[in-house]
Amino acid sequence: MQLPFFLKTPAVAIIGETCYSSLIEDFNYHDVPCIKYAISKGLGFGIVAGGAIVKVPQIIKIVKARSAQGVSLSSYLLETLACVIGLSYNFRKGYSLSTYGETFFVTIQNLIILGLILHYSGKNTSAFVILSSFLFFGSLLVRTTEFMAVDGTVVTTAFVSQGVLAVLQATTIPINLISKVPQIVENHKNKSTGQLSAFTVFNYFAGSLARVYTTLTEVDDVIILSGFLLSTLFNCVLALQMALYWNNSVAKPAKEGKTEGPASVSSETKKRAKKLD
């Protein structure tokens, strides 16, 4: 089967000329490697598209409530740090955008959420410093410079070497896992998920599960695969908490100065006496 050029061009760009010929033109649906690759690409771009909006409900929920109660600041700080490192590592390694593109969108949305958490806590100066620091750190990790050597070869240098960046990427595994712990503890302590978005939590779990498959299929990198496997486990815990504490509200602390006893009884007696008069 021949597709029109405006459909063939993006299809070839996504699954490659070989798999396009095998699956589309020859209808060879026994070509298991190409089928697995096509599924991986479809999932990958689906995750990237989902990543573009995954935290939007969380942002809207915080803005509407004008509060970030129940949303852990430390969780978002650690998660954003891991995202910045992961985004830089994948970009520098030249991996396909379908295997990490959502990290870019999640990073941007995390920065917005961090700003909102600090803003509604009255810490605007801290918000500016933290957001600027993340942007500066990311630019250092990504920045490379090319120059021509005496023998005519092009040499690429970077402020942060690829070896150091690989070590940083390895640290994102514990960082990502630790980033989930404060939120899990916060949920357990409050027996509520507060302003945490159900859409975000469940989509994160589904996305990390799908990322295990795309990484196994397209990326031969044990560091990245290990990170996604463990992240899926912790995202599963958050999803279970969301289901368990559904519609539970965070208990409000008792107001200071509210007392029980003779004083309150006396006040009530006076009100009743007034009514009798």
TrEMBL record:
Main location: membrane
Transmembrane region(s): 97-118, 125-142, 154-175, 196-216, 222-246
Location of this chain's protein in the cell: Membrane
Region of interest called Disordered, as start-end residue ranges on this chain: 253-277
A Pfam family this chain is assigned to: PQ-loop
Topology in the lipid bilayer: Multi-pass membrane protein
GO cellular component terms, semicolon-separated: membrane
UniProt keyword terms in alphabetical order: Membrane, Repeat, Transmembrane, Transmembrane helix, Transport
Annotated PANTHER family: MANNOSE-P-DOLICHOL UTILIZATION DEFECT 1 LEC35 -RELATED, MANNOSE-P-DOLICHOL UTILIZATION DEFECT 1 PROTEIN
Family statement: Belongs to the MPDU1 (TC 2.A.43.3) family.
Designated name of the protein: Mannose-P-dolichol utilization defect 1 protein homolog
The species this protein was found in: Entomortierella chlamydospora
